[in-house]
Amino acid sequence: MAENYREVFATHPRDAKNYDTQRLRDEFLVETVMNEDRLFWNYSHYDRLMVGGVVPVNKEIVLEAIEPLKSENFLDRRELGVVNVGSKGVVLVDGTAYELDYKEAIYVGMGCKEIIFKSCDSANPAHFYMNSAPAHIAYPTVKVSREDAIVIELGEAESSNRRTLNKLIVNDTIQTNQLQMGMTELHPGSVWNTMPAHTHSRRMEAYFYFEVPQGHSICHLMGEPQETRHVWMQNEQAIFSPTWSIHSAAGTSNYTFIWGMGGENLAYGDMDVIATPDLR
Questions:
Q1: What CATH number should be reported for the domain whose range is 5-278?
Q2: pTM of whole model > 0.90?
């Protein structure tokens, strides 16, 4: 069993109101997602969603079960979504090789035994970002290229939130149990994502920010709509958003983020929108 994990425990919103900056960061932020030659997981008690990443440089990385799963193989009772945010890499699933280029994804179904991650060029390695959720049905493993994604143009430049939404691992493209993943790209001059803000008590969400230019940062907004908080984030960092929390952000530049969700509803549009003037 690999010991490369930490547990992220669920928090009541009444408790979160009293958190200072450091406590917010300790409870929700994943400061280091990408580790060279080491796959590290953040095992959340919010819908048991897991967030992890790895940069294979000097060796291939084998996906191993972690102790909280109490299973022989990582995917004995789970499903996995992977998005490559680095140079070209390969994911081997029970001997079948799937090549992932920049911003391509793969869904790996429950029951797969041997999962291996490797870079095509160690000098320019892949950066594999991963989400995993519990599963009860074994669905097929599917690669999702940029051409396979459902692409939606959203927002307006005048409100600084012109963005391109790419649905990658969603029920409109492939079969999953509960895992949903996609990628939103902010256009130059736009900084706001997911605005107006919303919540969805049927599922939780995690955000992973990348393509944040050097010297720039993301101000991620969370908390109840009437009790909002913020966390400053950097490139290739992630954050957990509980079911009771909004999840939105503004950057000091445009950027890209990957959203991943777990819960009981697979409908992407199932959300409770919060009117911007109602935020506190």
A1: 2.60.120.10
A2: yes
